[in-house]
């Protein structure tokens, strides 16, 4: 049995990116700063977690070693003493953006060497030709927002006006993204998806990476809450990814979480969704029971990024990391001889950093599986090395980017 698992802890960067200053992120370090905050008591959340950050299972695979190697200095201990059981190192993102598609595509063997389109930090932010066409083609009474904003904050600000007027809330961020928030019941979920499909087509000439449907529920600012029915409309990768290559070879690629959305549903045989990251971990364990020889399981756990990184919630981020760490042994127990798993991240999102956007950072690479010996794999000069390592493990021909570390 030769199977592979790629598990992306969305935004769990480990600092050290040499080009971070180009993004205004010099010094950002998601994991390291969370560990420092917890060590000082700043990560305590009464009734949820307290004290130093404890990730003994991830640390056993080499997370602490990878994080320290990335920045060239020690980070606070994560709870494991001894030599790592996993093959550990860190990856350098070479893609031009620090967004979700860029990170995932590069992990899957296709670095993004072109520049995405972005919307300016002006009000309004969107070109009038885009908003006028969207209003006309989607038969909307107008739009709200039209600016850079945090998703939760703009829903709290404009949700009541949205319910009163029927106008969807349109906003963007530092990423190449056009986001549309609307009430799941009052506006309608399928209608929101339809509006996003129109927006996707209209955004194509602007080279915008994603259009995102952001449904929410609630009656006022005190209880508006985004739901798990988010949907991403991404442009397809510019070259065949690891997923495409696997499917072309007759393998099954199972995407868990928003993987299918990230890859524009290309190269994905089956998609599994879940209400939250905990449900997605359960789905991962269950999927491993049915994954066939030569198949790939590709998982994204988004809540580190969406609930805690963007919202700059250090204690919540720490609690989420510890919750995943407690469940990691379940994934290990479900693996079979011959399986390879790689845990990594797609970018950073330092909750101690200014603003609300992603941060440019190195990412951890933790490779493990039954019979796979631990040891350092060092600095990997592109995240595509992970995709090429999986390809080599599954017996697929090598791609044009990256080098296997197996």
| Number of continuous helical runs | 13
N-to-C span: 17 Å
Structural category:
alpha/beta
Return residue spans where pLDDT drops below 50 for at least 5 consecutive residues.
none
Instruction: Give the amount of beta strand, in percent.
Output: 15-25%
Major sheet: arrangement of strands: 10-9-11-1-12-13-2-14
**What is the overall pLDDT average?**
97
Oligomer: single chain
Compute the number of strand runs: 14
What is the radius of gyration? 21 Å
Q: Order of SSEs, N→C?
A: EHHHEHHEHEEHEEEHEHEHEHHEEEH
What would the principal axes of the Cα set say about the shape? globular
Give the helix proportion (percent range).
25-40%
Q: What does the largest sheet look like?
A: 8 strands, mixed
What would you say this structure looks like, in words?
The chain has 406 residues and is an alpha/beta fold. 34% of the residues lie in helices and 17% in strands. It is built from 13 helices and 14 strands. β6 (210-217) and β7 (225-226) form a beta hairpin. It is globular.
SSE layout:
Layout: E1 4-9, H1 30-39, H2 56-60, H3 63-71, E2 87-91, H4 100-107, H5 128-137, E3 144-148, H6 151-165, E4 169-172, E5 177-183, H7 184-203, E6 210-217, E7 225-226, E8 231-234, H8 242-248, E9 253-256, H9 259-262, E10 270-272, H10 277-288, E11 296-301, H11 303-309, H12 314-334, E12 340-344, E13 363-368, E14 375-380, H13 384-394
Parallel strand pairs: 1-11, 1-12, 2-14, 3-4, 5-6, 9-10, 9-11
Antiparallel strand pairs: 2-13, 4-5, 6-7, 6-8, 12-13
């Amino acid at each position: 049995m030769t199977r592979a698992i790629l598990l992306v802890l969305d935004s769990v960067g480990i600092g050290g990116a040499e080009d971070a200053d180009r993004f205004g992120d010099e010094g950002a370090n998601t994991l390291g700063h969370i560990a420092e905050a917890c060590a000082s008591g700043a990560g305590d959340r009464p009734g949820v977690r307290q004290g130093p950050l404890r990730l003994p299972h991830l640390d056993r695979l080499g997370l602490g070693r990878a994080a320290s190697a990335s920045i060239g200095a020690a980070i606070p201990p994560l709870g494991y003493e001894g030599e790592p059981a996993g093959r550990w190192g860190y990856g350098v993102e070479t893609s031009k953006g620090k967004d979700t598609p860029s990170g995932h595509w590069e992990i899957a063997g296709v670095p993004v060497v072109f520049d995405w389109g972005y919307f300016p930090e002006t009000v309004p932010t969107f070109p009038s030709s885009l908003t006028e066409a969207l209003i006309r083609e989607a038969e909307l009474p107008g739009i709200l927002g039209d600016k850079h904003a945090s998703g939760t904050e703009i829903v709290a600000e404009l949700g009541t006006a949205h319910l009163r007027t029927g106008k969807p809330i349109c906003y963007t961020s530092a990423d190449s993204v056009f986001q549309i928030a609307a009430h799941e019941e009052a506006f309608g979920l399928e209608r929101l998806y339809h509006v996003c499909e129109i927006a996707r087509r209209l955004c194509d000439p602007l080279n915008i990476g994603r259009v995102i449907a952001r449904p929410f529920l609630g009656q006022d600012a005190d209880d508006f809450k985004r739901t798990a029915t988010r949907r991403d409309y991404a442009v397809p990768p510019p070259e065949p990814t690891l997923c495409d290559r696997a499917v072309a070879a007759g393998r099954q690629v199972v995407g868990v979480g928003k993987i299918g959305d990230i890859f524009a549903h290309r190269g994905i045989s089956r998609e599994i969704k879940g209400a939250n990251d905990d449900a997605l971990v359960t789905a991962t364990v269950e999927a491993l029971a049915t994954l066939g020889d030569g198949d790939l399981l590709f998982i994204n756990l988004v809540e580190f990024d969406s609930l805690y990184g963007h919202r700059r919630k250090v204690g919540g981020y720490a609690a989420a990391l510890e919750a995943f760490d407690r469940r990691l042994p379940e994934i290990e127990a479900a693996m079979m001889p011959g399986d390879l798993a790689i845990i990594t991240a797609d970018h950073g999102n330092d909750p101690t950093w200014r603003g609300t956007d992603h941060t440019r950072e190195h990412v951890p690479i933790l490779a493990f599986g039954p019979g796979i010996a631990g040891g350092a794999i060092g600095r990997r000069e592109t995240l595509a090395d992970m995709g090429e390592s999986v390809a080599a493990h599954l017996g697929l021909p090598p791609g044009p980017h990256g080098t296997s570390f197996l």
